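Researcher: Go.
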Amino acid sequence: MRLFTMRGLKWSLLLRVGVWLGMVGTSGGAYADAPVITAITPRGSSVTELTVTNCSDANFNQIIQLSTNLQDWSTITTYVYSATSPGENLKALVPATNEVCFYRAVSIPWQPRPLFGFAIATHTNFNANGKNILVDSFDSGDPSFSTYVTNAATGSNGVWMYNPAKGKAGGDVATRTGVAGSFTLGNMAICGHLYTGPGNQSNVVQMGPYGTVGDLAWRATNTGIEGNGTFTNWWQQTFSSTFPAVAAPTWVGNALPSVTTTGPYAGYIVIPQAGANSNYAVSILPSTPLYVVGPAQVWVKGSASLGVIIATTNGARLTLYVGTTTGIGDSITLAGNNNTVLNQPGYARKLQIFGLPSLTSLDLHGNAGWTACIYAPNTDIIAGAGGNNVQDCTGAV
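Model: Structure:
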């Protein structure tokens, strides 16, 4: 999914002591007013004083970049300008690394985006280590790009699931920053687009010899980034987004019911209970897996070790909130062989997990497989398989 389309360029030029300055047009058809930029570089000095005037567009960030050859641009990440009032003047001392340096202000708008518009989206660092890591996509509404699988837990009912032989190049990955070392692709394959903050490959995206970003057909015979340096580049340096904190639920939840001891759900906590409110609240989620048979919400005001099955009948779905609005140190664990089935087989939209500010760790390790949509903006996430084991993760993070 392409979220940005470059519509044009808009420039404000000023030559002063060997310094070229301009503004790059923003994406998506929205434009900031061109700021007036002045620069003073004293002879023999290693710094330049930039003054940016008339940054009156509050919905744009002005990010200063530097180049010595007008081809490779590096972001001066210390200076990210966000206007607060009309006619605002912003001053910054920036490095003058060569006798002739070029500067530009890149305007990036803050635009509303779908909550789960990417396979993976991060505030900052993304590191892929190891081998055989693949991100792609499928379409559960199209048999050409999915396979029908019977859910053994619920009898004849089934779901249209991901099949490696029917993948699509829609596994888009995004990270907000353009800081050196913030995105390490390693030998990972992204069958989709990569979005980062402004910069160039030498200081933003670190890749191994077999790392790839692009379409499936291109990846079959190539490595690197498809279309790199052209207008069809599968890596776009135009990503800028906010990740708002998750608010606490306003409802008062019931206590979770006891473990079922007989019948087809023996050994599970079944929710929602017949005739009961479908909202539940606990301090710590028990290790006993949940079996969801209808619409339900659970708020865990602490840590959670997950084992969840979502039935495919009766409109079953679970919205899971973990953590609180204050404090730190809460975690979600889905690791090893203990309670490792998380909504598989199932649809990701039927298990949505929201991490409140105190949730700072999410561990999806070992043979743990999951199908879910996860939004946890304060959380460090670790995911991986062990040895020759395959960890199949479906959804969005």
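Model: Confidence is low (pLDDT under 50) at residues 1-31.
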